[in-house]
Design goal:
This protein is of the alpha/beta class. It folds into 2 domains: 116 residues, Probable inorganic polyphosphate/atp-NAD kinase, domain 1 (Rossmann fold); 136 residues, Sandwich (Tumour Suppressor Smad4), CATH 2.60.200.30. 18% of the residues lie in helices and 38% in strands. It has 6 helices and 18 strands. A hairpin with a 3-residue loop joins strand 16 and strand 17. It is globular and about 65 Å long.
């Protein structure tokens, strides 16, 4: 089996774990490991620089990709590999860590689980967005956000779903989230927690002007069209992808959001318990009356 490694090259823990991975896997039969080259990579901290490869080699040779970092790093890795169909194992060295399946204390056990076949691959739906009449497509693991950008007040956003008018939201913006992203920005804006295996899109207004404007869950086969009330033509809005990519858009723009034909592949293990992860990450205390 071949493991490809990428991650957050700015963290010292990345280099410590990669060097340790090389040592750990060198004792395994029929196992190879490679590191994806990056201009930010500090090669002086890598013991085995001969394992650094370019993207084409990395994609062609890897069976499993290990992404070392926080959720943001794992999301970036999933988007980078979106057309490769490679499963990604998140190795957590960051903050909250909803997407990671192991950390610096447990990754050796998890690698042994993979080598022994004690794992499965979970498909996560993605959404894509594009500005109408423009070629470029944006793919999102967590969410697509339209917000007021440089405008210093609420904006009016017209939303239609499969050519049926839904509402005009007066808000700071709208979040269009995948189930995977339901525990990210959407949650902080009052959206629901959704089991990540489901196929749906969550529409969550950001600081709506009217309290009756609540989150909306729609089937993933719907096509969502977004346009804007053009009260002024001097300002630009912002289109954000996973909090990592940002595009300026005009008030004349029409944005199309729908389910992507691609999906993310995330490594899971036979003892995985999503609800236990929720309890741990959300710091739920259970039934306090029984404590």
């Amino acid at each position: 089996m071949v493991f490809g490694v990428l991650g957050n090259f700015n963290k010292i823990e990345f280099y410590q774990i990669f060097n340790d991975l090389c040592d750990f896997l060198s004792n395994k039969k029929d196992v190879e490991i490679y590191l994806l080259n990056n201009k930010g990579l500090d090669k002086q901290k890598i013991i085995r620089t001969d394992l650094i490869v370019d993207y084409d080699f990395f994609e062609m040779k890897s069976d499993v990709v290990i992404s070392i970092g926080g959720d943001g790093t794992i999301i970036s890795s999933l988007r980078k590999l979106i057309k490769s169909d490679l499963p990604v194992l998140g190795l957590h060295i960051g903050g909250l860590g909803f997407l990671a399946e192991c950390n610096k204390d447990s990754y050796k056990k998890r690698l042994d689980d993979i080598l022994n076949g004690n794992y499965y691959v979970e498909n996560r739906m993605l959404i894509e967005a594009h500005v109408e009449n423009e070629i470029h497509q944006f793919y999102s693991v967590n969410e697509v956000v339209v917000n007021r950008g440089e405008i210093g007040r609420t904006i009016k956003i017209n939303v239609s779903i499969s050519d049926k008018y839904v509402n005009t939201y007066e808000a700071d913006g709208l979040i269009f989230s995948t189930p995977t992203g339901s525990t990210a920005y959407s949650l902080s804006a009052g959206g629901p927690i959704v089991a990540p295996q489901l196929d749906l899109i969550i529409v969550t207004p950001i600081c709506p002007h009217t309290l009756s404007m609540r989150p909306l869950i729609v089937p993933s086969n719907e096509r969502i069209c977004i346009s804007f009330e053009q009260e002024t033509k001097r300002n630009t809005l912002s289109l954000n992808i996973d909090g990592q990519l940002q595009e300026s858009i005009s008030l004349e723009s029409r944005i199309i959001v729908n389910k992507s034909k691609y999906s993310s592949k995330i490594m899971k293990f036979n003892d995985h318990d999503y609800y236990q992860t929720l309890r741990n990450k959300m710091n739920w205390k259970g039934n306090l009356r029984l404590k």
